[in-house]
Amino acid sequence: SSGINAEYGGSTIPLNSYIMAHNSPVLTDLMEEGGELDHDVTDFDPEAVRVFVDACYTGNVTMLNKDTKFNVFSDFVKMVAVFKVNWAKERCLGFYKRQLPKPSDDFDCYWSYALIALDSALI
Question: What's the pTM?
Answer without folding.
Answer: 0.74
